[in-house]
Amino acid sequence: MTIERRDLLLGTAALAAGSSLGAPAVLAQRGGRTLLLAAPGAPEGFDGDALRPGTQEVVVQVYEGLTRYGRTLRNGRPYLNPDVIEGHLAESWTSSADGKSWVFKLRQGVKSPYGNELTAADVEWSWAKSFAQRRTGNFIANVANVTAVKAQSRYEVVFTLSAPSLILLSALTLYVPGIYDSTEVKKHATAEDPWGLKWMESHTAGFGAYHLETLRAGEQAIFVANPNYFREEPHFNRVIFRAVPSAASRITLLRSGQVQWIHRPLLQQVAELRSDRRVKAQDSFGRTISSIRMNLRFKPFDNKLVRQALNYAVDKQALIQGVYFGLAEQARSIIPPIVAGYDPSAFSYDHDPAKAKALLAQANFDFSQELEIFYSQIFNWEEALSIQVASQLQAIGVKARAVRISDSDMRARGAPARQDMPMFAFEDGPIVLDPVYTTYLLAHSRGVSNRARFADPRMDALIDEARQSLDVPRRNELMRQAQALWMEEAPWIVTVYPSVWEAMAPNISGWCPHPDDHERWYDLKVG
C-alpha cells in the first residue's frame, strides 16, 4: 500500500595506518561480495532501545519497519521521498473513521535468519518490549499517540491510539521499536531478564537484510545476509565492521583500497577527499542542529534578554567557515530545512554586537560573572565551536570559557533525570521527517532530546494540539507559531545545520541518505 503525504505535511521542503584489512585482490576473488567497513569503534550492543556506541549504525541493518519512505532520484543519486509512505513488513493497512485504530496486514512469508516467520505476535511482543523499557521506542509511541499494539490474527496487528496522528506512518519506518523474532529471543529470556536484553548485547534476531554472525568486543563485528530475506538478495552477502579509532588511519585504509567504506570523515578531511580520485565523498542533507544550549533554570539564562543578546553576539557565518569548513548551513529554525514545515521567517539573530550589548545593558547583566560552555567529544566540532563562541562572547565583554568534560559526563548530565549544565554544546535532530515530531523531540517539556529542560506551557500546548490534529491547515499554523515562539524565547544559540558526509571506494554506488544518518548496506553495490 502506498499513501501520498503531500497533503499531510507543511510544504516542500584499533589499527594503525597501513595495517592490512584484506588486500583488494582478495576482495576480487570473493566477487566483490564482502563489504569492508572501518568505523571509530565496534558495536557495543544490538538493542535499538538501549543505544550504545556503534549500536545505531548496525541495528538499522537488522531491524526494519512496517512501512518505509519512497525513493526518488536527484542528479543520478537516490534519496528518500518523505511525501510517499510505502508498505514494507506490512503490505497494507486501514484506519478507523476517527483515526484512533489502525489495522496493519503483515506481508506473509517474511522470515528471520532463524527460519521463523514474521507474525502479528512478533509485532505485539516487540512493542511491548519498548513500552516496558521506557526509552527510545516508548518515546516514539508517545509522540505518535500509540497506547497499545495487539495481534488480531496471525498476520493482522492493531495499533490503538489515544488521539489521531499524522506521525504514525512515518514513525513506523524506523528501526525502533524494532520488530524482533520473538520466537528466537524468548529462548534466551529469563525471569530476571524477560526481554532477553542480556542476549541482545551480543546477538541479533530481526527480519532485516543482515544479522550478526560473530563479534569480537572492541575489535570487529561480522554480519551476513539474511538467507531468508523477503526482498532481493543484497549485493554484499558479508559485511566486516572493523574498529579503527584513528580518523587518519581510516582514510589511509580507504585510499589504499583495504576498506570500501569509512564512517564519518572529519569535515576538515572532506575537502581533501573530494579531490582524491582514489575515493568518493558524498554529502547528504543536514537534519541536525549544532547549538549552544542554555538552561533556563540557571542564572543568567533565566532572563530572555540575556539569551537573545548571546544569539546576536555570535557570528554564524564565521562559525560556518572556521568550524565547519564551509560545509554547513546557517540554522534559522528548530526545524531543519529537510523537514516539511521549516519556517525561517521568525529568525532575527544575524550577527549584531551592538544590539547584543544593548540587550545585556537592558537586562542589567553582571559582567563580572563567568559563563562556562561545557563540551565533550561526542561530535568532532564541539571543541572548536565552544572555543569560538566563547571568544565571540568575550568580544562583547562577556567572560566566557570553554570547558571540556567526558563524553559519559555529557550524556549523563544531559539526561532527563539530571540536566544540570547551565550552558553546553550539543547536536540533535529528528529521525522522523515530520515537523511535529521534531518540535516534540527538541522543544516539548517531555522531549527526550530537550537536554536543557526548556519548559514552556505555551510550547507544549501548540505541540500537543498539533500531535492530535487531522486539520492540516491548523497543524501548519500551530507549527508556524511554535517556531516563532522558539525564536522569541531563544533557549539555544542556534548555529548551523551541518552537512553529513560519507566516504567510500569510487566503485561503490547506491548510497541513499536516511534521517538517522546511517547508510543501509542493502542499498550498496559495486559498480
Automatic annotation (TrEMBL):
Keyword Repeat among record annotations: no
SUPFAM superfamilies: Periplasmic binding protein-like II
Keyword Oxidoreductase: no
Superkingdom field: Bacteria
Stretches assigned to the Solute-binding protein family domain: 85-449
A Pfam entry, by short name: SBP_bac_5
Subcellular location: Periplasm
InterPro entries (alphabetical): Peptide/Ni-bd (IPR030678), SBP_5 (IPR039424), SBP_5_dom (IPR000914), TAT_signal (IPR006311)
Broad class of the protein's primary localization: periplasm
CDD domains, per the entry: PBP2_NikA_DppA_OppA_like_7 (cd08512)
This protein's UniProt keywords: Signal, Transport
Family statement drawn from the similarity comment of this UniProt entry: Belongs to the bacterial solute-binding protein 5 family.
Protein name stated in the entry: ABC transporter substrate-binding protein
Organism, scientific name: Falsiroseomonas selenitidurans
